[in-house]
Amino acid sequence: MSLEIIPVKIDKEIEQNDDITELLLSSTSKPEIKDNDILIITQKIISKQEGRTVQLSTIMPSLLATGIGSEYGKDPRVIQKILDESKRIVRLNNGVIISETIQGFVCANAGVDESNVKQGHVTLLPKDANASAQKLRADIKKKTGKNVVVIISETFGRPFRIGQTNCAIGLSGISAISNYIGAKDTFGRILHVTEIAIVDELCSASELVMGKSLNTPIAIIRNYKFNDSLSSINDLLRSKYEDLFR
Amino acid sequence: MSLEIIPVKIDKEIEQNDDITELLLSSTSKPEIKDNDILIITQKIISKQEGRTVQLSTIMPSLLATGIGSEYGKDPRVIQKILDESKRIVRLNNGVIISETIQGFVCANAGVDESNVKQGHVTLLPKDANASAQKLRADIKKKTGKNVVVIISETFGRPFRIGQTNCAIGLSGISAISNYIGAKDTFGRILHVTEIAIVDELCSASELVMGKSLNTPIAIIRNYKFNDSLSSINDLLRSKYEDLFR
After folding, report:
1. Which of B227, B39, B37, B7 is nearest to A211 (CA)?
2. Cα dihedral: B79, B85, B91, B96 (round 10)
3. The domain B54-123 belongs to what CATH superfamily?
4. Span(s) in chain B for CATH 3.90.1660.10
């Protein structure tokens, strides 16, 4: 059966404590929510809804942030927030900061972002996007009676390959990994090592209808057969000690 | 408009010099090919069609391959093919070989794969999957009159994140990157750094209908608005010198 990826327009700039379920249900794109729909929601609106927006003028940069900002011609207040959101810096080169965030993601600028936010402000990643996904899923169940999956997405760069792709930073109601270990290939031989990060693939698929400036922060993926589980985003995070590239 | 991802079944085990266009058109899933369809085709059938299958009994492993095989309990003949397909080893640890392939991909085992192939054989990546994609696209145009995009996909692991995702290794008729540089965000501010690797996202989306053992080596993605270009897979390959993780 064909998979369908449906864009959902939200015509309002999201503010703190907005009701995302209500905005979804009242969208002009009138999406009908069905059981087993997979809702992919961009991090940006979750962060805004949760008040994870910071006014740069309120930030007092440390000497380290000032130094890094001076070295690379960057706003030291933004650098300060990147440091605040990071456990540690993994790479720092030519003004590119790759760090491990408090949540455990390895990405550029710790998810601190100046795009699609009011001038003089930055957005931060949700503190716990997995909890955000769980909460939103429960709210959708309450208001519609439908069992859906919620995945919160963010665009990350990659080593070795140019360009960003959309990845999962929080999820509820779906296994993060589709595990083919023990399954058989078309020759009847056991597949040993194939674990597909399907929630990342679902996020990548959703980006194709979202774009970056289109007021389309939500996509619905329909007809995808998934395994329900108590999986969390942590299932996707490779530890520093098992990582050949840190 | 919703995106549609349509699985295409091929009920025949692909052999060297099979006509993939004919097999596509005679598929029992009866896909109708339309202008601007994006065809994602898994590397495995391209490799088989191009004769990139090797019988292990014909391989004489070098002392290096024998040594690596002995150290990690692996078949030295498979190790030999991995070395043959690699420019250099990027990481070697606990039996995991990450190398840069002759084509420029950084991945595990240089794409040498024992799954979904006859016992005692391995498949190799296509020598030039970009050329394979161009050739197949021209053939589809000739036999159907339709202008389609062809992307050849392979599953790669990632640093930092557990699980593999499907990526592009060859493409024809589409820009590899969707470039938002110079575009404006919803606040009218210029976006500076957003380059999305959309061909990788399209491959990830296709994997959701392909699975690993389902005789579904092709997917059609319909209703995706893309930029045509003379783009090649090389647009996605970050050089060693610009890569912070090699």
Report:
1. B227
2. -40
3. CofE-like domain (3.90.1660.10)
4. 54-123
- The residues that bridge with B106 in the sheet, in sequence order, are B100
Chain B residue with CA closest to A9: the answer is B1
pLDDT band at B214 (very low <50, low <70, confident <90, very high): low
pLDDT tens-digit map of B22-46: 999 999 888 899 999 999 999 999 9
Start and end residues for every CATH 3.30.1330.100 domain found in chain A: 4-52+126-239
DSSP one-letter string for B81-134: HHHHTEEEEEEEETTEEEEEETTS-EEEGGG-B-TTS-TTEEE---TTHHHHHH
- Among A1, A93, A212, the residue with its CB nearest the CB of B183 is A212
Which pLDDT belongs to residue A193?
63
Q: B201, B209, B238: best mutation site toward chain A, by most A Cβ within 10 Å? A: B201
Q: What superfamily does domain B4-52+126-237 belong to in CATH?
A: CofE-like (3.30.1330.100)
Indicate whether B211 pLDDT > 90. Answer: no
Tell me the average pLDDT across A67-79.
Answer: 96
**Model ipTM?**
0.95
- Taking an 8 Å cut-off on Cβ atoms, the answer to whether A162 and B207 are in contact is no
Contacts with A1 from chain B: Cβ below 8 Å: 7
**Pick from B204, B208, B212: CB nearest A183:** B212
Inter-chain touch B204–A204, beta carbons under 8 Å: yes
CATH fold of A4-52+126-239 reads 60s Ribosomal Protein L30; Chain: A; (3.30.1330)
